[in-house]
Amino acid sequence: MLAKLFIQNYALIDKLSIDFTEGLSIITGETGSGKSILLGALGLVLGNRADLSSLKNNDTKCIIEAEFNLAAYKLERFFSKNDLDYEENTIIRREILPSGKSRAFVNDTPVNLSNLSQLKSKLIDIHSQHQTLQLSDVDFQFSILDALAKNDKKIASYKRGLKQYNVLVSELKKLKENQQQEQQQYEYNLHLFKELEEADFKSNEQDELEKKLDVLNNVEDIKVSLSEAIQITTGEEFGVQNLLNSLENSIQKISGFSKEYETLHQRITSVKIEIDDIVTEIENSNEIVEFNPVELETINDRLQLLYSLQKKHQVATIDELLVIYEGLAEKVNSVENASEIITNKQKEIDEVAEKLDSVAKLITEAREKAIPKLKKELEFLLSELGMPNATFSIAVQPTEKYQSNGKDELQFLFSANKGGNYGELKKVASGGELSRIMLSVKKILSQNTKLPTIIFDEIDTGVSGEVSNKIADIMQKMGNYMQVIAITHLPQIASKGISHFKVYKEEVDGITSSNLKQLTKEERIVEIAEMLSGKDISDSALIHAKELLN
Length: 550
Prior knowledge:
alpha/beta, Rossmann fold, six-stranded antiparallel beta sheet, six-stranded mixed beta sheet, 19 helices, elongated, DNA damage, ATP-binding, DNA repair protein RecN, coiled coil, P-loop_NTPase
C-alpha cells in the first residue's frame, strides 16, 4: 500500500507530505484546486516522462518521494531480477533538476524509467474514465474470469510449458530450413568432405614433409659437408680425434702431480668422449643420406595436394583444414541424419504439447465453472448501481491454437436493457455504464486476487442519489481487502472514508499554491456539508453531513 507521499517544487505545490492509511481514503476539493496534480506526482515518481514544466520554481529541483509497504505483494523476485534491494517499506524517489535532467531511485539505488514503469503496474492502479477501455480488451476479460477461477498457478504452469513448446517449435523450424539449405549443397559438401577425408592429413604433417623435402633437395651438399666433417675428425695426421688422443696422453702423464692437472685430464677425456659420439653420428648420417627420387616425388605430390587444398579452402595450415573437415562432416551428417533428428524433435514437441493440452483443459474447465459465478456477481452489483436489467453473455470456446493463457477464445458480451441484443462492451455500453461495470469488476477482483493500491479518479461522474450510495458502499467493501483512494465530488462517497484529505489553493504574496491536509472529524463535517449545499452552509446540511458520517 501507499504509506507516504512527499512532494516538493512540483506544479503548484511548494512542499507537502501525506501519510495514507489502509482501507478507503477520500480526497476532495474544488475543481481546479490541484487534485490532478497529486495524480501527476504519483505518475511521475512511478516512471512517467517529465520536463521543466513540472517545476514550480525553475531554479531548484523537484523531488517526489513515495513510500510503499510491500509486505503483501511478494515482489522479492522482481527486486532480485532487477538488482534492487528489497525492503518491506520501499522508498521510490524521483528528482527533476533545473537542467531538465531526471533521476530516479528505489531504496537509494539508481534505476531507469523502464524499471519504474514495470514496478508501477504492481503498486498503483489509477482508474480514470479512459481506463474503462480495458473492459473491451480480451486479455483483461480473461484476467477477470481467471481470478474467479483461481487459475493463477495453472496459467503459470501453462506459460512455462508454452515457452518450452515455442522453443522446440522454433528449433524444428530451423532444422527444416537448415535441412533444405544444406540439401541443396549436400553433393558439393560431400565432395569436399571426401576430398579431405581421403587426403587424411595429420596435424603436424606439413612441417615434417617440408623438412624432408628440404633434405632431399640438398642431398649432394649435405653429403659433401658430412664427408668433410668425417675427414676433419678422423684424419690420420691432423684429425681431431688423433689430436685429442695426443692431448689426453700428454696431460695424463702429469695428472698425478696436482688436483689441477687431474681436473684438466678429466675435462679432456669428456671432450674426447663427446667428439667420439659426434663422429659416430656423422658417420651414421653419411651412410643414411642418399638421393631417393621416388621419395622426393612422393613428398612433392603430397605437399602439392596439401597446398592445393589450402588454397581451395583459403587457409594456411593443416589445423585450419581439419576444422573445415569437421564442419563439412557435421553438414553432411546433418543431411544424412536429418530425418531422424527431425523425427526426434517432433517427438519432443508432441510430448510437451500433450502436457500443455492437459493443463489447458484444466484451465478451460475452471473457467467454465467460474462463468456463472462471475455473471451472477456482475449482474447483482450492476443492479445495485442502478442497472437492474444489465446482463452478460460469457462463454469460452476451446480452440486448437495455443494462446498466451490457454487454448480458449472468450466471448464477453453485454446488454443493458431487458430484451436487448448482446454486443461488445465498447459498442453497446455508454461511458457511465462502462464506469459502473469497471467498478463492479474491481470489486470482484479485490476479493479474489491481490490488487495493488487503486485510485478512483472521479468514478462517480454523472451519478447521484441512491447510485452514489451504492458506489460508496462498494468502495468501502473493497477497502476491506486493499487500499482504495477515491477522488470524489459526492458527499455520499466522501463520508465513507477511513481518512479524508482536502486539496485546496491558497495565495501568499500574490503566488498561488496548492496544498493538502487531512481533515479532523469536525472539519469533515464542514467539508461534507459544503459539498451538500455549497459555500453557504445551512444547518440542515450540517445535520445531513453528520448523519452521513455516522
